[in-house]
Write a structure and sequence with these properties.
The chain is of the alpha/beta class. It has 2 domains: about 5-145, 3-Layer(aba) Sandwich (Rossmann fold), CATH 3.40.50.620; about 155-280, Rossmann fold, CATH 3.40.50. The chain is built from 9 helices and 10 strands. A 10-stranded mixed β-sheet has the order 3-2-1-4-5-10-9-6-7-8, sandwiched between helices.
Amino acid sequence: MKTILIPTDFSVNATHAAEYGYQLAKQINGNVILCNAFMVPVEMPQASMVAWPMYEYNEIEQSRSNDVNELKKRFEKTNQGEFQPEIKCINEAGALQDVISEIVHQHDIGLIVMGTHGVSGLSGFILGNHSRRMIDNTTKPLLLIPPTAKMLPIKKIAFATDLEHIAQDLDAIFDLITYAKLLNAEILLAYVDDLKYHTRDFKKHMEDLLTDLSNITDYPLIYYRLVKSHNTEAGLDWLCEHGQMDMLAMVHRPRTFFDAIINGSHTKNMADHITKPLLIFPAKA
């Protein structure tokens, strides 16, 4: 099994996400990389512009290294005769996105797990921007953990599909099945529309799709559900609240500049308020 990358800034939300990621690694027999990206203050000629004390690089690096190792020890103490993921710690100076990209390039990363903001104010704004940048730029599946997510076994994963980009959706579903098999979790293909009822053609199309998926992947725990709503995000919100699912999965598709401004991104909008873990697959060409 590939390695789970867990970036952390040691905040409450980030630590909660790291705990979730570590428990997930136990369930799928995967290893873990804990990473922290830190910024080193650059000395400015205008003394009045320096808003923080100037520390040496080695001091900052050592402090963050100690924090990451303490988190590693905390996780290792929870091991009780079960599978124990190997934990590697990495501290790098630089922007979070750049550090993650370098780690992904150097290691066989299968999944990135990080926290969402879920708070207001400056902290929420900064952490929210990190999540949004990662959604746009990740090349690996990205699992966002909101602060309200509970540490429960994952038994049902809903995959949101619009049925308009079926090739990209199938790529993501095949990847999702890899994890679902390890978790013995059901996959629910969720299609949001304001249809009054299932048409005969729609029902046949979905049944044929499920049959093909089951035959190709040899995984029978795949179902579908029509979620009736005139708004995609409202329908997915309803599903998260009433669908008895433990995780929502989506494919993030790049939008044009003006479309993003006018309509926004379903994935980003869901990440801003979802209360369940959100698994995001980057759209493949």
